[in-house]
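Dear colleagues,

For the upcoming journal club I promised to circulate an example of a predicted protein-ligand complex. I picked one with S-adenosylmethionine because it came up in last month's discussion. The inputs are reproduced below in full, followed by the predicted structure.
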Amino acid sequence: MNFKATPLSAGLYLVATPIGSARDITLRALDVLASADVIAAEDTRTARKLMDIHGVALNGRPLVAFHDHSGDGAVTRLVAEIASGKSVAYVSEAGTPLIADPGFELGRAVAAKDLPVTTAPGPSAVIAALTVAGLPTDRFAFVGFLPAGKTQRETEIAALRDVPFTLVFYESPKRVHGLLLSLREVLGDARDAVVCRELTKRFEDVSRGSLAELSDAFSGRTVKGEIVVLVGRAGAEEVDDAMIAQALQEAMKTMRIKDAATTVAGALGLPRRQVYQLALTLET
Ligand code: SAM
């Protein structure tokens, strides 16, 4: 056993848990789960299973359910535990609490009482997907789940059309094709996109292509598992090196090379590093 059960100071501990592979739990997450006075979980069975896998015993400590529908009373009870000097660990069903998961109201209520809120950080599907997708990661916007209805979904996508960041969506396997069709409809055929399925699990699968290619590839397919969809930033497909060079030459008349690269990258919605490297070739 690599983890330690040691007394924790009072506070809320937001603990990230694996999104697939159970061994992605961190040692500190296990320390906190082994040590907290109270464990609150979105799903107590999942939490207990994870603790069992890693040999973390409850030893009579309370394991209580807490989710978005638990109500104000449940928040008040947990805040009162912390105010009385207890440590409370909170785990959502998978990944990082608050990231498309419960924990927000609880964290806010604890902070509002000036009580400590801390985290044992770890897995989250948004970061895992960005890590493998191959799209720019210097600026990204996490959108999470869009509404299920087509009209509402497309209205929300339209509001993101010009955002020069990689966009990250969570989606259910049943609706992934509908999401890809809506993205294609609103953002056009050409944007780069990536569908990440079952990250860190046995059938992990990453599909890359344009929105047109991916929406065709997922048409009529029965899709299973958990899914993150990423879309390349606005403007990236229309800018060629000559355009970047021209913008850089203009900017470099009044700015240092680094500032010029930052400005041009921001204006064209491109990764700073790519623009900076081009700027270096222009510097004479
Ligand atoms: N709190 C979690 C996190 O930090 O990523 C997200 C919880 S949200 C209720 C569940 C969604 O996350 C899934 O529908 C899917 O979109 C995404 N997700 C979770 N695990 C995943 C995995 N292993 N591979 C791909 N997507 C995953």
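Two points we might discuss: Residues 149 and 178 are 10 Å apart (CA to CA). The chain is about 40% helix and 20% strand.

See you all on Thursday,
B. R.
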